[in-house]
């Protein structure tokens, strides 16, 4: 039953990531429900999510290569600070992580719910070349470093943060932004998985079932994407995410 639960959770998570985002809201709690300790469940969630990022980046490759001059810098920052975020996670006890998770979930739900408005606001503020120059290259690097650190520590909400960063960096082509978002997410997840693997923090057995479900769910959702009303899915994910966050707060502080 545990393996079946993880496959089903993976199916839903993969489909959600393809259709609207928010797959971690399904998979991470399922890993916890399977009896996996919180820190290892979080690391395993990153491992299971990695193929989805990579396959998405391949799909946007023609848009990504048009900005190849930025790939090396973005990749180095993503690798270094994604690894650092994973390292930070491994130095947090399960007891401490349980207290942190509700706040991370709340942050991720807010990002998911208001991501479009956040990115529109950022694009408006970053609208002129002069403003972007005043923001400064160093500031953008530090922002990407902080986002990568977060992604290595906790995966949910990473995509929205990366879109906001890319808007600040001056991108306006949504296809290029989605492609680069997926590229950086892949790099950050690779660094995290490498660190988690070295420390034995990934539950490979249960993670493999979740990964299989994600791959199938993402593929199936891609075939049906045009038939499914995305706004309805996003609303359901937000309602579910709010309820789940409330449950995490109750369990951590009052349970």
Structure, explained:
Helices cover 84% and strands 0% of the residues. The protein is globular. With 255 residues, the chain is mainly α. The chain has one domain (2-253).
Nutshell version of this structure?
The protein has 255 residues and is mainly alpha-helical.
The rounded Rg comes to 17 Å
Q: Structural class of the helix and strand makeup?
A: mainly alpha
Catalogue the unreliable spans: none
Strand content: under 5%
Shape: globular
What's the number of domains? 1
Number of helices: 12
Order of helices and strands: HHHHHHHHHHHH
- Portion of residues within helices: over 70%
Would you count the extended β strands for me? 0
| Sheet with most strands | none
Mean pLDDT: 87
Distance from first to last alpha carbon: 26 Å
Keywords:
single chain; 255 residues; mainly alpha; 84% helix
Please describe the topology of this protein.
Layout: H1 2-19, H2 24-33, H3 38-59, H4 61-64, H5 68-90, H6 94-125, H7 129-135, H8 137-153, H9 158-168, H10 174-199, H11 204-224, H12 230-253
